[in-house]
Design goal:
Blueprint lengths: L2 H16 L2 E9 L1 H18 L6 H14 L6 E3 L2 E3 L6 E3 L1 E3 L2 E3 L2 E2 L7 H17 L12 E5 L18 E5 L3 E7 L2 E15 L5 H16 L2 H5 L2
Parallel strand pairs: 4-8, 8-9
Antiparallel strand pairs: 1-11, 2-3, 4-7, 5-6, 9-11, 10-11
Helix pairs in contact: 3-4, 3-5
């Protein structure tokens, strides 16, 4: 095993041994985000020098949901609970030897363009092998996008001492009911794995619903609703 794989194995097993892990699911209609991306992607890239992907929307939406449900962004420290007023979001990116998880510091202060620029830089340096260890430490919440590999659904494992991880999955057209009519919509399953010692089911569902509402109506990201 490589040093990286040994570290990953140890931390994932630690999470299973210590956390009361539970996963809650929801789904999200990606129509609005896909239309927004298609409409503005060329202008966005021309202005900001980076492609407009889906992660920028999800990180921004997650930051808003974490503010509404602070326990999801918290951590257990002995017999204390630590709440954070900032969101350092760990994002999984591909590297030659597997996935690495660098951290977007103070993601709540960044625009979608700032988030996409940071993720793009992480992806490039992950391939080059120039990411620093300090850039992969200290996240408060993780987003993992298995959808890029075709995953339909998963139960991601928490990265201690974080208390929750959001799993994104592939987008596929499925039949849904809208205004009494069956229509095909691009849908994605969302999975939130969390430490039930700290986060109750109601808080997990509230977080996922807030995230879903923001993605299905991206205007909420602009006016902080």
């Amino acid at each position: 095993m490589t040093r990286l794989r040994k570290t990953v194995a140890s931390r994932l097993k630690e999470a299973q041994n210590t956390a009361a892990m539970l996963t809650t699911f929801n789904d999200v209609d990606m129509t609005a985000v896909m239309e927004t991306r298609a409409k503005y992607k060329d202008l966005f890239e021309k202005k900001h020098g980076v492609r407009l992907g889906f992660m920028g929307f999800f990180v921004k939406a997650a930051c808003m949901a974490l503010k509404d449900v602070p326990a999801v962004n918290g951590a257990i420290d002995g017999e204390d609970i630590v709440y954070r007023d900032y969101a350092d979001i760990s994002v999984a990116v591909s590297a030659p030897n597997g996935l690495v998880v660098p951290v977007i510091r103070n993601a709540e202060t960044l625009s979608v363009a700032g988030i996409e620029r940071t993720i793009g830089d992480f992806g490039k340096r992950a391939k080059d092998g120039t990411l620093k260890m300090d850039e992969m430490r200290g996240g408060t919440f993780t987003i993992s996008n298995g959808g890029v590999f075709g995953s339909l659904m998963s139960t991601p494992i928490i990265n201690p001492p974080q208390s929750a991880v959001l799993g994104l999955h592939r987008i596929e057209e499925r039949p849904v009911v809208r205004d009494g009519q069956i229509v095909a919509r691009p849908m994605m399953y969302l999975a939130l794995s969390y430490d039930h010692r700290l986060i109750d089911g109601r808080e997990a569902v509230t977080f996922l619903v807030a995230l879903k509402n923001a993605i299905e109506d991206p205007t909420r990201l602009l006016i902080d609703l």
